[in-house]
Design goal:
Elements: H1 2-14, E1 22-27, E2 31-37, E3 45-54, E4 58-73, E5 76-91, E6 96-110, E7 117-126, E8 131-133, E9 135-150, E10 153-166, E11 173-187
Antiparallel strand pairs: 1-2, 1-11, 2-3, 3-4, 4-5, 5-6, 6-7, 6-8, 7-9, 9-10, 10-11
Length: 188
């Protein structure tokens, strides 16, 4: 079954160039995530979809929709976006599932003195009113340092944290995915 999931992920990612702007693949010690973004940084909107498989039989899907534009922080060229991220999960080990629509945004800051180097971050939060299933709230955070090695590919390292509070009385928060990550992004 594990080989089937990885094969399905590989096949779906192979079809990405036909309709995508970029393909992002990242690994933590316990998870793998594929993300496809449909529009480039020059567009006013960004739409993306992703899937994460965590070793503990946990599946996480996301759909992103943001308004985006170019700006600057200090004198550093920046692409920023505000919008929403829908996160949906199914945890077979704990027998819980749910999701949320988190509001938030992202920023990508380029460092002109070091061509190819950039830092990015995204944060989305969903309170109880925007959470469903077994979730009472949900937080998604990702931080990255990236380096574009060639015109259409970059490598990155960073940190990912996705946490939800279960809506059962006395239930602890669970980290749906957390850890240091490394990966690559290919631009089409």
């Amino acid at each position: 079954m594990k080989a089937y999931r990885i094969s399905a992920l590989a096949l779906s990612m192979a079809a990405a160039p036909a309709f995508a702007s970029d393909l992002d693949l990242s690994l933590t010690n316990n998870s793998v995530k594929g993300q496809v973004n449909f529009f480039s940084a020059q567009n006013d909107l960004q739409l993306g979809a992703g899937y994460t498989y965590r070793e503990s039989k946990r599946h996480i899907g996301n759909i992103d929709f943001h308004a985006q534009g170019r700006t600057s922080i200090g004198n550093l060229p920046t692409t920023a976006g505000v919008g929403m991220r829908g996160l949906f999960y199914d945890d077979n080990r704990r027998n819980v599932d749910g999701g949320a629509v988190g509001l938030g945004g992202f920023a990508i800051v380029n460092i002109p003195d070091v061509p190819g180097l950039s830092f990015s971050g995204s944060l989305h939060y969903a309170p109880t009113i925007l959470s469903f299933g077994d979730s009472d709230d949900l937080t998604s955070l990702e931080l990255r340092a990236s380096y574009r090695v060639i015109r259409n590919a970059e490598v990155f390292a960073g940190y990912r944290y996705i946490n939800t509070e279960l809506d059962f009385a006395g239930s602890p928060d669970i980290n749906l995915d957390e850890g240091l990550l490394a990966g690559l992004k290919i631009f089409f």
